[in-house]
Amino acid sequence: MFETIEWTSAGVVRLLDQRRLPAEEVYVECRDAAAVAQAIRSMQIRGAPAIGVAGAMGLALAAQSIGARSFEEFYAELSRHGEALRRTRPTAVNLAWGIERMQRCAQQHKTLPIAELVQALIREAQQIREEDIRDNRAIGAYGQGLIPDGAAVLTHCNAGALATAGYGTALGVIRAAHAAGTRLSVWAGETRPFLQGARLTAWELQQDGIPVTLITDNMAGHLMQRGEIDLVIVGADRIARNGDVANKIGTYTLAVLAQAHGLPFYVAAPLSTLDLSLRDGEAIPIEERDPKEVTDWAGVRTAPVGVRARNPVFDVTPYRYITALITDRGIVRPPYDAGLAALAGPAVAL
């Protein structure tokens, strides 16, 4: 398993540059929180769980550079870096979750000397990474039984090892089923405009020897109509209390299509993706990125000069289109509000 992100013995954050895949496997080193923020903003690292880990490690880097004489000074500076990291990607709640967990860790160790507090924060960031991999494997273990033998599975964007610290959420379920001997094949939607499905998901599945066929996003309905898709599994960037799910743009379309064709639609995500502070998906902030990601590709303009473009990068799928949520603590079926609250407990709420 390749390393998506890690804390090295030299005290830097090393991450796989996902903009260069699949042509090149290039790793970059971030030596301060600003470099991590830029890596998140530019999508060198992406995926809700992965940027949660990156945010935590970014704060650990910040902690190493803070020259404070008191905890109050230290915490104020740490919080400033945390807010800068939080602003890089507003939709994925894991980023805020990772930052707030690091801030809680600092508060819990406030009586330590600053040097020891910094080490505690580094250990916490490393622990968050290890927990994410463990949680993803738990998602796979819970969800693998939902894939029947011989199934053709459609997935969207990239919810694999690249979107996490390792193993993956939606692809973690697929990996676990494949490892258990389930015969399956995967349809990977290309996921315009950034092509995470084409560049990343297809690459990951090839690495594991899992049969994968790439399709354009607008082919899914045709294949469902022909009976060539048996179920859909996607990841999530934020899940509201009622089960509404924000995920990569196009997810809502697939959910509506799946319901129209009587197909199960599953969402796989750790409970760190849950935002119990939101009653429903209406309040989930939807990030809009540079329209050039729509009008251009790889530095080449593909649209007429002067044409306007929109680039919302997430949409919200209402809970009524979701068959089940696959989490690291079990499978949740409707009604989601009661089931998610019971699994999560108060510690997961932001």
Automatic annotation (TrEMBL):
<dbReference type="InterPro" id="IPR042529">
    <property type="entry name" value="IF_2B-like_C"/>
</dbReference>
<comment type="pathway">
    <text>Amino-acid biosynthesis; L-methionine biosynthesis via salvage pathway; L-methionine from S-methyl-5-thio-alpha-D-ribose 1-phosphate: step 1/6.</text>
</comment>
<dbReference type="InterPro" id="IPR011559">
    <property type="entry name" value="Initiation_fac_2B_a/b/d"/>
</dbReference>
<dbReference type="InterPro" id="IPR000649">
    <property type="entry name" value="IF-2B-related"/>
</dbReference>
<feature type="site" description="Transition state stabilizer">
    <location>
        <position position="157"/>
    </location>
</feature>
<keyword id="KW-0028">Amino-acid biosynthesis</keyword>
<dbReference type="GO" id="GO:0046523">
    <property type="term" value="F:S-methyl-5-thioribose-1-phosphate isomerase activity"/>
</dbReference>
<feature type="binding site">
    <location>
        <begin position="247"/>
        <end position="248"/>
    </location>
    <ligand>
        <name>substrate</name>
    </ligand>
</feature>
<dbReference type="InterPro" id="IPR027363">
    <property type="entry name" value="M1Pi_N"/>
</dbReference>
<dbReference type="Pfam" id="PF01008">
    <property type="entry name" value="IF-2B"/>
</dbReference>
<dbReference type="InterPro" id="IPR005251">
    <property type="entry name" value="IF-M1Pi"/>
</dbReference>
<feature type="binding site">
    <location>
        <begin position="46"/>
        <end position="48"/>
    </location>
    <ligand>
        <name>substrate</name>
    </ligand>
</feature>
<comment type="similarity">
    <text>Belongs to the EIF-2B alpha/beta/delta subunits family. MtnA subfamily.</text>
</comment>
<keyword id="KW-0486">Methionine biosynthesis</keyword>
<feature type="active site" description="Proton donor">
    <location>
        <position position="237"/>
    </location>
</feature>
<comment type="function">
    <text>Catalyzes the interconversion of methylthioribose-1-phosphate (MTR-1-P) into methylthioribulose-1-phosphate (MTRu-1-P).</text>
</comment>
<protein>
    <recommendedName>
        <fullName>Methylthioribose-1-phosphate isomerase</fullName>
        <ecNumber>5.3.1.23</ecNumber>
    </recommendedName>
</protein>
<feature type="binding site">
    <location>
        <position position="196"/>
    </location>
    <ligand>
        <name>substrate</name>
    </ligand>
</feature>
<dbReference type="InterPro" id="IPR037171">
    <property type="entry name" value="NagB/RpiA_transferase-like"/>
</dbReference>
<keyword id="KW-0413">Isomerase</keyword>
<dbReference type="GO" id="GO:0019509">
    <property type="term" value="P:L-methionine salvage from methylthioadenosine"/>
</dbReference>
<feature type="binding site">
    <location>
        <position position="89"/>
    </location>
    <ligand>
        <name>substrate</name>
    </ligand>
</feature>
